[in-house]
């Protein structure tokens, strides 16, 4: 009897230890904590920062999953950072990084893009072609891409050790920096005007069925330069990301305003759910930054949102160990 009792106590203790030590999955509670701390600052317009912080929280109030937001608008000095510590599998937004690395390499070698590079970059960006992305990735080599990320000032982006570019890990602030390589104040240090113009042209010509996400709510007369990623996996459900830069009339005499929006998410039950979450945030940002201007793009109709992966990661790829660790550390 004593022996059986000892075994029972050991079994109970083991079960309790296992329960306590098992990482908790990302849940609505995790997302809610981030939503409450959606900090926006704007030295030249504190009221704008207060309003947008409130509007972002409202946009995410009833949404499940884990969401990170980064916004920068030089015209008002506005910066927003929500969920800065979260990291995500990039899926197809990694293609912006690959394109920029190819543009920088051409400059390093004192030449323009080759015909072969142009034939890979355009379909990789405008229709999210994965074969073109893989061939460019292999041609660049992972060490060169890593050096480019260092030059771009990223601090939380790591390349997959098995060479799977779609499983590059990143955060919203780093994606804002990478958009800034094409549009930000530091862009001149990395890419020539012609290289930046070429890269922006590709992002502006992403095909219609892939123009969901951060353009939602942008005003008429504004141009969008964007890339999206959408990938379901066995851990963290759907990754649904949208990153974009926007140019158009600004406040007051500023007629050449450029601002950037990044929304990254995972733990979405479906792609449609993730797209709708991103578009609620984007509409709040565009509305706050463009008071009185009429929206030129509405939410994407649900029947136009596919539930098919972007194919950036092979189905047989193993789960990322770092994904599990990120969840445990939140």
Give a brief description.
Helices cover 45% and strands 15% of the residues. It has 330 residues and is an alpha+beta fold.
Can you give a write-up of this model?
- The chain has helices at residues 2-21, 28-36, 46-60, 94-108, 115-126, 130-140, 142-152, 172-183, 187-190, 193-204, 271-289, 321-329; strands at residues 40-42, 66-73, 78-82, 88-89, 169-170, 223-232, 238-248, 257-266.
- The protein has 330 residues and is α+β, with helices and mostly antiparallel strands.
- It has a single domain, classed as 3-Layer(aba) Sandwich (Beta-lactamase).
- The strands form two sheets. Strands 1-3-2-8-7-6 form a six-stranded antiparallel beta sheet, with helices on both faces. Strands 4-5 form a two-stranded antiparallel sheet.
- Residues 1-35 and 321-330 have low confidence and may be disordered.
What is the secondary structure topology, with strand pairs?
Blueprint: H1 2-21, H2 28-36, E1 40-42, H3 46-60, E2 66-73, E3 78-82, E4 88-89, H4 94-108, H5 115-126, H6 130-140, H7 142-152, E5 169-170, H8 172-183, H9 187-190, H10 193-204, E6 223-232, E7 238-248, E8 257-266, H11 271-289, H12 321-329
Helix pairs in contact: 3-11, 4-5, 4-6, 4-7, 5-6
């Amino acid at each position: 009897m004593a022996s059986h009792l000892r075994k029972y106590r050991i079994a109970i203790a083991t079960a309790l230890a296992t329960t306590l030590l098992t990482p908790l999955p990302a849940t609505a509670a995790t997302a809610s904590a981030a939503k409450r701390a959606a900090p926006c600052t704007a030295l030249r317009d504190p009221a704008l920062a207060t309003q947008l912080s409130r509007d972002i929280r409202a946009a995410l109030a009833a949404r499940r999953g884990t969401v990170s937001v980064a916004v920068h608008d030089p015209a008002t000095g506005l910066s927003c950072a929500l969920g800065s510590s979260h990291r995500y599998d990039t899926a197809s937004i990694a293609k912006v990084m690959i394109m920029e690395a190819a543009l920088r390499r051409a400059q390093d070698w004192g030449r323009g893009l080759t015909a072969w590079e142009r034939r890979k970059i355009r379909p990789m960006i405008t229709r999210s072609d994965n074969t073109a992305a893989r061939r460019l990735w292999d041609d660049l080599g992972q060490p060169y891409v890593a050096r480019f990320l260092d030059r771009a000032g990223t601090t939380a982006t790591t390349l997959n050790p098995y060479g799977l570019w779609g499983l590059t890990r990143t955060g919203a602030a780093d994606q804002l920096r990478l958009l800034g390589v094409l549009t930000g104040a530091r862009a001149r240090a990395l890419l020539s005007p012609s290289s930046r113009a070429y890269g922006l042209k590709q992002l502006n010509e992403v095909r219609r069925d892939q123009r969901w996400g951060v353009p939602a709510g942008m005003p008429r007369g504004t141009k969008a330069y964007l890339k999206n990623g959408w990938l379901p996996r066995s851990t963290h459900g759907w990754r649904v990301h949208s990153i974009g830069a926007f140019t158009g009339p600004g406040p007051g005499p500023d007629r050449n305003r450029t601002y950037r929006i990044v929304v990254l998410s995972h733990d979405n039950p479906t792609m449609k759910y993730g797209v709708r979450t991103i578009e609620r945030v984007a509409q709040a940002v565009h509305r706050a930054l463009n008071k009185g201007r009429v929206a030129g793009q509405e939410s994407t109709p649900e029947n136009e949102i596919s539930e098919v992966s972007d194919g950036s990661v092979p189905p047989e790829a193993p789960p990322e160990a770092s994904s599990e660790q990120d969840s445990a550390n939140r």
